[in-house]
Design brief:
It contains ten helices and ten strands. The chain is α/β, with parallel strands linked by helices. It has a single domain, classed as Rossmann fold (3-Layer(aba) Sandwich). The strands form two sheets. A six-stranded mixed β-sheet has the order 6-7-8-3-9-10, sandwiched between helices. Helix 3 crosses helix 4 (109-122). The termini are far apart. It binds adenosine-5'-triphosphate and magnesium ion. Adenosine-5'-triphosphate binds next to helix 1.
């Protein structure tokens, strides 16, 4: 099978802290690849390096055989990205957000108009194209971000928590759409989620990251077999443990201390 993503010995340090700690993995062309892990595992940091937004401390990344660190401009043409944090311009309309992105990626005027109409229809936002994005619901914004990520016909779509905070209807809708894209347009999908059942239902391969390292990479079925569990969530917990991650645990301690102080008054 052809590899479309190849990552070798990738490291990202923030001062002395290794957020991504010597990670090596590959993704096959046409895969729906779920990148799972507890809060703070290093998922977003990895995606940011794969998509040229963050410079690795060390390591190598190839996207469709293009060296991302040496040729970021070329690499960018190969992928679309939907960020964990909303990244639309609220003060522009849906159409303006799409046009702005098309210009940024050098999509020519004729192709641009056709493609924008096609994509906005696809995510059922064509009728709302002239509305300001600030009037959109969370689900509508997500759909617009996905349409925007596809404007320049990428080979890979990166989605960092594409469905967080959305209702089950919208999540299903978005997933059906992503699955269709994967099948019809042969787009490789690389996504993160904390909804483990989404990974179980839609992904072909799962990688689990914890404390900056990849601790497993298998099909959902194999992961369950290896951990002798009957759901992917149980497999995930068997591999990553039940403890809340340090950061969050500190947060809870702080909250407790605050409460104590407050009660003491
Ligand atoms: N710019 C930064 N400076 C310092 N530390 C950072 C920076 N960005 C991320 N980190 C740290 O790196 C670690 C990994 O963060 P990252 O955002 O990649 O996690 P994640 O797996 O995406 O988590 P989540 O599921 O909560 O989105 C965390 O401990 C985080 O605090
Ligand atoms: Mg993240």
């Amino acid at each position: 099978m052809d590899k479309i993503i190849e990552v070798k010995n990738l490291i990202k340090k923030f001062k002395d802290f290794k957020a991504v700690d010597d990670v090596t993995f590959e993704v096959e062309k046409g895969d729906i690849f779920a990148f799972l892990g507890p809060n703070g595992a290093g998922k977003t940091t990895t995606i940011k390096m794969l998509t040229t937004l963050l410079k690795p401390t060390a390591g190598e990344i190839l996207l469709d055989n293009i060296n991302v660190i040496k040729h970021p401009e070329n690499a960018r043409k190969n992928f679309g990205i939907v960020f964990q944090d909303q990244s639309l311009d609220d003060e522009l309309t849906a159409l303006e957000n799409m046009e702005f992105h098309a210009v940024l990626y050098g999509v020519g005027k004729n192709l641009r108009e056709k493609r924008i109409e096609e994509l906005l229809n696809y995510v059922e936002l064509w009728d709302r194209r002239k509305s300001l994005v600030k009037t959109f619901s969370g689900g509508m914004k997500r759909r617009l971000e996905i349409a925007r990520g596809l404007l320049h016909h990428p080979k890979i779509l990166f989605l960092d928590e594409p469905t967080s905070g959305l209702d089950p209807q919208t999540r299903n809708y978005i997933w059906d759409y992503i699955a269709k894209l994967n099948k019809k347009e042969d787009i490789t999908v690389f996504f993160t989620t904390h909804y483990i059942e989404e990974a179980e239902k839609y992904s072909k391969t799962i990688a689990i990251m914890d404390h900056g390292k990849i601790i497993a990479k298998e099909s959902p079925q194999k992961l369950k077999e290896q951990t002798k569990t009957d759901s992917l969530e149980a497999a995930f917990l068997a591999l990553t443990g039940n403890n809340i991650r340090d950061e969050d645990a500190n947060g809870i301690d702080q909250l407790r201390n605050h409460r104590k102080m407050w009660r003491g008054h």
